[in-house]
Amino acid sequence: MWHNHGTHKFFPRKRGDIMNVPIKPLIVALAVPTLTAMFSAGAQADEPQCFFESRSGDSVECAIYHSEISNTRAFLETVVNRGKWMRPSKRAVIIDVRSTPEYKAGHPEHAYNVPYPFIYQECTAAGRTVDGACKSGKVSEIAQDPEAFKQYVESIIPNKDTPIYTMCRTGVRSVAAANRLTEAGYTNVRNMWEGFVGINLKAPFDLDDDPATPTVELPVDLNHDGLLTDADKNGWLYHQGLPVDKRLLPKLIYQPRADLY
User: Fold this and answer.
1) CB 177 within 8 A of CB 254
2) Which of 16, 160, 219, 256 has its CA 20 to 30 A from that of 6?
3) How many CB atoms lie within 10 A of CB 191?
4) How far apart are CA 17 and CA 62, in angstroms?
């Protein structure tokens, strides 16, 4: 029962009420589950989180690196803003993981070439594209050893906190490379998802304006010229038209196989 003293009501304490529970045991009782949840969450946070899957044929590469970055942002941070940082460790670096012929055909300025997962491909009689890739398949391939890849990057970029942007032709090989570097302890690895050449993007189109008819995914004419060509690919080289460097500077090429350029 309660007692009315003026306008205030006071409730008597009964054994078993929460107000009769000693304060210290109550704090412990409430804190233990909370702390357990916090430590469990911390343990889970240590596990790599797959925020993106790069698919190439039947293989799937789960992304565990820092994040993605666009080509234009990478260009601004590695070329336009180059030299504006106080410390070299803060200067972002592009690692171009394409093969040696692809790098030779053109690459972003200041980009290191550390090929992964293959160093070189001998093409079929169809030859190579203008960007150095095989047009229609390979005859043979020189694979890159994952440990050799890691060790070479460590030799040219010893500071594990350096911002590293991995790039390949279409954003598939660069995902695998970014994962290897993250596993090696690099803390700020980002993948240039559009790639040097890029792909023809697709978008859903309604061909007959009938809501009951499903849409069809068709390539997008990025340049709006009525044609679907390489110029519509969304990478560094074509649609974005960012500067391309063809110099083979000794400090930037992959020295263990300098003979392949």
Assistant:
1) no
2) 16
3) 28
4) 52
